[in-house]
């Protein structure tokens, strides 16, 4: 009886949080007229696109990418260069950026995604380093370290995406499309097949492949689709900032994206968006707060603070912020004297809206 | 300068750079085979080895005691990191990906700290030798023979440790047959610490030795980690000879490319070649290892 009641409450809560977040996202521009806060809202959406691609790759394919900064940069530079140097229509250039990033991911993924161990993360890491070096060195096209611009704005007829508010809704619109697409994939043949093969969610790749699931193909499709959206996000960034230079696309950017995924919680898409908000809030707080007291500005503390926080989260809250309710509930059970079995933890986790991996920790099968 | 002289020059400096990569790759290989974890700190040790030694020398400590002090400090720091970050995860049997991400966080933290402490300027160090000399027409920096000799000594030391001592044999047992090793009373956790410490010791020493030639800066760690990883993978990951050969090939390739392309491309060459090799033969170069599907 009691468990039935708590289940109902949990489901309601499970819908309440995303609904509140979604409403807050839609209404935010009406409550602030400050350009600063509105631009932060745009950046949250732009980063959320890349972070969602990274997080869905981890959630569906069980692979950690350390190079989505390169796909983001690929989209941004393709869109920027096409529209500035070749006078391509900005919308077409945006699409081309996404396709270019997806193509790059597809070629990489064909060879690396299937490999267990460290080859995939390290090859994406290598990709990001090479990409950065090329951005700096091929300065005839990319403008080198100082970059290039001005990049034209996106426009529909006379409606130009010039203000923060307009970019805000455009970028969040793309995030909404990603939610729809990836939610559908999760409930389609690809999602079910990958879940059956998912090492960290109790699946077995051998069993799935024996049943006719082409695991490697599905993984690569998820990877390429995520990279496509990441490229679109990069393109939106280019058309929003209107000037491109290599520094935002260094490896540190990929590290921050990975942090957003882990801090928020890779087991839920809302968690990833939450992680983006937390990290950008932290970044801005560092820049504004520490910047007042230090000579070098708050930015120079990012490495120390982010590195330490990343380690702490991975050690003590591996499922990220979204796993907090399930953890607290399990703790409450424990305090009540009820022994929390593994299945119980899984059930509690599932009720809290996270996938049935006990606490989001990436655990080896024993 | 004739073509032959140029070739010789590239060969010699390539071997010197390659020996640094070889040490980093050996450290990665040892940790990987004992624990299955990728030690993302591999390049960070080298950076610390260079920077801390420079700091001691600037404070007036003679070179050799400075290097010894640096080794002690970095190995102790590494032990603390192991206890805080690796030990709990190994006890929980966490996935290798979690350990990789945690060590990535530690490496980022260390790099950020190094930036705050030492700033962005590259640091230089005076060595026992200075100036240049000539072999068969190639101009060689005086530190290069020193680097190669110390590397050879380190490799010999690792060989003796792993082949002749009880500790080394225990580590190898742990790498080959973990369960059987446990049954014989060998603690995988102790061997994990030993492997991490050995890797830290080797890479820190290599960093201190190579700094007079290449200078040290806070940013040098991450590229070294990935290059060590490349060398280890191209060389086969399980055999030390293969790893060392891979590292030397990588060093020579990089120096050769640096001779013909703008200097900025240097870092991209090795990584690009690695990506190409893996793209063409994703499993071929690492077949020796127990990689399997998922």
Concise account of the structure shown:
The complex is a heterodimer of chains A (366) and B (294). Chain A has helices at 2-31, 35-61, 68-85, 90-112, 119-137, 139-142, 164-186, 189-197, 205-210, 215-241, 251-264, 269-293, 302-316, 324-335, 342-351; strands spanning 155-156, 159-160. With 366 residues, chain A is an all-alpha fold.
Describe what this molecule looks like in 3D.
The complex is a heterodimer of chains A (366) and B (294). Chain A has helices spanning 2-31, 35-61, 68-85, 90-112, 119-137, 139-142, 164-186, 189-197, 205-210, 215-241, 251-264, 269-293, 302-316, 324-335, 342-351, and strands spanning 155-156, 159-160. Chain A is an all-alpha fold and 366 residues long. Chain A has a two-stranded antiparallel sheet with strand order 1-2. In chain A, a hairpin with a 2-residue loop joins β1 and β2. The two termini of chain A are 35 Å apart. Residues 1-11 and 347-359 of chain A have low confidence and may be disordered. Chain B is built from eleven helices and two strands; from the N terminus they run ααααββααααααα. Chain B has helices spanning 3-35, 42-58, 63-91, 96-118, 143-164, 166-176, 178-183, 188-214, 221-235, 240-260, 266-280; strands spanning 132-135, 138-141. Helices cover 74% and strands 3% of the residues of chain B. With 294 residues, chain B is an all-alpha fold. At the A-B interface, α4, α5, α9, α11 and α13 of A face α3, α4, α9 and α11 of B.
């Amino acid at each position: 009886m009691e468990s039935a009641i708590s289940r109902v409450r949990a489901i309601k809560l499970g819908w309440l949080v995303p609904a509140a977040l979604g409403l807050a996202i839609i209404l935010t521009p009406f409550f602030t007229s400050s350009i600063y806060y509105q631009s932060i809202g745009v950046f949250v959406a732009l980063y959320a696109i890349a972070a969602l691609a990274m997080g869905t790759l981890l959630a569906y394919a069980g692979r950690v990418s350390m190079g989505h900064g390169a796909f983001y940069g690929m989209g941004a530079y393709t869109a920027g260069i096409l529209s500035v140097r070749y006078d391509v229509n900005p919308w077409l250039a945006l699409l081309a950026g996404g396709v270019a990033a997806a193509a790059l991911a597809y070629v990489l993924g064909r060879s690396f995604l299937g490999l267990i161990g460290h080859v995939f993360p390290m090859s994406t890491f290598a990709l990001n380093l090479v990409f950065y070096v090329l951005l700096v060195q091929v300065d005839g096209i990319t403008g080198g370290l100082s970059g290039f611009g001005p990049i034209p704005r996106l426009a529909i007829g006379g409606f130009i995406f010039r203000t923060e508010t307009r970019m805000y809704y455009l970028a969040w619109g793309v995030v909404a499309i990603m939610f729809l697409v990836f939610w559908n994939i999760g409930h389609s043949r690809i999602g079910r097949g990958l879940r059956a093969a998912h090492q960290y969610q109790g699946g077995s790749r051998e069993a799935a492949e024996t049943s006719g699931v082409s695991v490697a193909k599905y993984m690569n499709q998820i990877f390429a689709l995520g990279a496509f959206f990441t490229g679109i996000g990069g393109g939106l960034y280019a058309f929003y900032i209107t000037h491109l230079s290599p520094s935002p696309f260094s490896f540190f950017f990929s590290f921050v994206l990975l942090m957003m995924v882990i801090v928020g919680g890779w087991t839920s898409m809302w968690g990833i968006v939450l992680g983006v908000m937390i990290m950008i809030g932290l970044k801005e707080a560092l820049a504004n707060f520490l910047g007042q007291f230090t000579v070098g500005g708050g930015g120079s503390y990012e490495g120390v603070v982010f590195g330490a926080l990343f380690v702490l989260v991975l050690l003590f809250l591996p499922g990220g912020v979204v796993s907090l309710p399930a953890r607290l509930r399990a703790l409450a059970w424990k305090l009540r004297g009820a022994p929390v079995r593994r299945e119980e933890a899984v059930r509690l986790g599932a009720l809290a809206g996270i996938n049935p991996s006990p606490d989001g920790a990436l655990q080896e099968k024993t | 300068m004739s073509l032959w002289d140029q070739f010789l020059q590239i060969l010699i400096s390539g071997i010197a750079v390659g020996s640094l990569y070889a040490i980093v790759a050996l450290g990665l290989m040892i940790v990987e085979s004992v624990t299955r974890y990728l030690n993302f700190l591999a390049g960070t040790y080298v950076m610390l080895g260079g920077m801390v030694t420079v700091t001691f020398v600037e404070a007036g400590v003679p070179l050799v005691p400075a290097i010894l002090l640096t080794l002690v400090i970095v190995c102790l720091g590494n032990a603390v990191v192991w206890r805080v970050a690796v030990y709990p995860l190994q006890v929980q049997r966490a996935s290798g990906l979690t350990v990789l991400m945690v060590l990535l966080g530690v490496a980022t933290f260390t790099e950020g700290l190094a930036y705050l402490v030492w700033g962005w300027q590259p640091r230089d160090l005076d060595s026992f030798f200075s100036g240049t000399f000539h072999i068969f027409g190639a101009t060689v920096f005086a530190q290069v023979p020193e680097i190669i000799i110390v590397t050879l000594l380190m490799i010999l030391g690792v060989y003796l440790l792993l082949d002749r001592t009880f500790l080394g044999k225990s580590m190898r047992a742990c790498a080959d047959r973990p369960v059987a090793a446990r049954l014989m009373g060998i603690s995988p956790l102790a061997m994990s610490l030993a492997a991490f410490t050995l890797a830290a010791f080797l890479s820190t020493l290599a960093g201190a030795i190579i700094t007079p030639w290449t200078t040290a800066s806070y940013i040098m760690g991450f590229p070294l980690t990935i290059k060590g990883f490349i060398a280890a993978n191209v060389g086969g990951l399980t055999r030390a000879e293969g790893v060392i050969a891979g590292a030397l090939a990588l060093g020579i390739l990089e120096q050769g490319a640096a001779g013909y392309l703008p200097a900025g491309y240097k870092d991209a060459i090795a990584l690009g070649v690695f990506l190409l090799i893996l793209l063409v033969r994703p499993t071929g170069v690492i077949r020796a290892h127990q990689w399997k599907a998922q």
